[in-house]
Amino acid sequence: MNRIKKGDQVIVIAGADKGKKGTVSRVAGDKLFVDNINMVKRHTKPNPQAGQPGGIVEREAAIHSSNVMVLNPATGKGDRVGFKVLGDGRKVRVFRSSGEALDA
After folding, report:
1. Cα–Cα distances in Å, from 76 out to 19, 73, 86, 102?
2. CATH architecture assignment, domain 9-46+55-95
3. Per-residue CA distances from 43 to 7, 21, 54, 55 (Å)
4. What is the spatial distance between Cα 16 and Cα 59, in angstroms, rounded to a whole number?
5. What does DSSP assign to residue 102?
6. DSSP classification of residue 52
7. Percent of the chain at pLDDT above 70?
8. In whole angstroms, what is the distance from residue 71 CA to residue 77 CA?
9. Residues 6+ apart with CB under 8 A from 51
10. 3-class secondary structure for 31-90?
11. For the chain, what are the domain ranges?
12. For residue 71, which of 27, 8, 2 has the smallest C-alpha distance?
């Protein structure tokens, strides 16, 4: 089970976008794609078959999971994530500071 999942609100703790908040749109191993974070300019060739014009396209690049923290809505700050096994055998993610579950 991953500590960070698609749809989580995260805050960037390192890099050029430090302090920015966003939603995880895609997870690829230990790399994440966060909406409007780590934007890069990509020079693309036109592809008439796909109807794609050429030029400079701005899009999100991957950011390593160690450079983000899950945003705790109660405190408004980044928080570490741990795991807890419930009585019925389910494993849930919890905030380390408060112990409250992320996946309620």
Report:
1. 12, 5, 26, 14
2. Roll (2.30)
3. 29, 27, 8, 6
4. 15
5. S
6. B
7. 98
8. 6
9. none
10. EEEECCCCEEEEEECCECCCCECCEEEEEECCEEHHHEEEEECCCCEEECEEEEECCCCC
11. 9-46+55-95
12. 8
Tokens of 22: 């966003």
Reported residue count of the chain is 104
pLDDT tens-place string over residues 11-54: 999 999 999 999 999 999 999 999 999 999 999 999 999 999 99
The two three-digit tokens of residue 9, written as one number: 């609100």
Give me the residues paired with residue 45 across strands: none
Name the residue type at position 33. F
- Which pair of tokens denotes residue 62? 């991957």
pTM of the model: 0.85
